[in-house]
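User: Predict the complex with zinc ion.
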Amino acid sequence: MTGPLAWHASTHAGRDTLVLEGDITEDADLDGLRAALRTATELDTSAVRRINSCGVRDWMAFLSAAEAEGKDITLHRCAVPLVSQLNMIANFRGHCTITSVMAPFVCGACDHELTEEIALDGTERERIQNPPPCPACGAAAMEFDDLEEQFFAFLDDERA
Ligand SMILES: [Zn+2]
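Assistant: Here is the predicted structure with zinc ion placed in the model:
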């Protein structure tokens, strides 16, 4: 069965990584994805474009089934639509460790958009307050294209 969600195996910093791409919806083959998990797997979701409500439900079922099988999952380069879900749904991450997220930036001068990986190392808020220069027009600083106060709210839940 081919769903809109595809993945391929890779390695990142010596860890088994599955790079996901596409949409997480009711058509995504998350059972197939679960079968592809190793004992410890890093999921790179930076190329996930969208997750709908069925996708959210299936994703959370996928994480708890994987956990029940003793699979250790790390979320790496977490896509912006998944960060939104992390901030809305307390259990969206399951027991996953999250090492980095993708943050959206837009250029005020030329409207160029990009997402940049932000490591969750304690400097993440500082990073979005100091946006990168625009690679398209050379403007000195792009603007963070989400709600600065809320984007990392899920980190506070973690400490609570
Ligand atoms: Zn620009």
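The beta strands are 5-12, 15-24, 40-51, 72-76, 97-98, 100-106, 113-119, 143-144.
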